[in-house]
Amino acid sequence: MKSVELRELKKVEFKKPILVAGFPGLGYVGKLAVTHMVRVLKAEKLAELYSTHFPHHVLSDDRGLVRLLRIEFYGWINPDSGGRDLILVTGDAQVQDVEGQYLVSSEILRYARDLGVDMVITTGGYQSRPGGTPRVIAASTNVGFLDRLKGAGAKVGGWGNPIVGLAGVLMGLTTFYGMDGVCLLGETLGYIVDTKAAREVLKVLGRLIGLDIPLDGLERDILKDVGEAISEVEAEMRSLERILERTREEKITYIS
Questions:
Q1: Residue pair 150/165 in contact by the 8 Å Cβ criterion
Q2: 171 lies in which domain range?
Q3: CATH (domain of 89)
């Protein structure tokens, strides 16, 4: 097995697709948002990515069947002839080391470019203490998107913290692949599975890309997988604690 290996399961022709990615992290926000989109849009699986840079354990279902940790790609064809298709990307865990973050992100973007993607939106959590409805904090590699993000209801600027993890590296590398990058972060305490933050991220995302994303059933969908989600979150939080320990001196407050 290569250090990063992508296996395409299905070939589909897309029209101007946008890639939306969300991975486990603070509040499980990005993972929840993208997993919900996969479900409500009934997106089809396109590919799987495996890497030696993922944590060294496997996942086991209630039958005792195990599999390696992976990232999954799903495709959705917009029924509106004038609309844009979507590539939805999520995974079981964050990559564990710096080199792996870049290698995995580069492979995701290489595949996305082959599919015709020119815009990448990453989602995640921003550690804070929401006073009420969680805000959505946004950033972009393209100054031209900043007003659009504000118009979609996101807070832009004035925070200045690094965006660590796949949500940050994946967005940052888009400029090397001829794409624009955007990141949407929902305010969350970080130590609970935060459906409220995921809901607010989905609202802003929907306005940004001009898509009505059904939000009904978000909490119900999550409850179906709560056992698996909790075990994955616990494993991911242990990994995040190790990353935070290494970066504490830099006072980084956000990890996707």
A1: no
A2: 4-250
A3: 3.40.50.10900
In a domain, 68, yes or no: yes
**Angle between helix 29-41 and 195-209 (nearest 10):** 60
Question: Is residue 255 in some structural domain?
Answer: no
Q: Give the Cβ contact number of residue 199 at 10 Å.
A: 20
Residue 135 per-residue DSSP state: P
Claim: this prediction has a pTM higher than 0.85: yes
Question: Does 72 fall in a domain?
Answer: yes
Q: Is residue 227 part of a domain?
A: yes
- Taking only the tens of pLDDT, the chain with its 256 residues reads 899 999 999 999 999 999 999 999 999 999 999 999 999 999 999 999 999 999 999 998 889 999 999 999 999 999 998 899 999 999 999 999 999 999 999 999 999 999 999 999 999 999 888 778 999 999 999 999 999 999 999 999 776 778 989 999 999 999 999 999 999 999 999 888 899 999 999 999 999 999 999 998 787 656 655 555 555 555 666 666 666 676 665 555 555 5
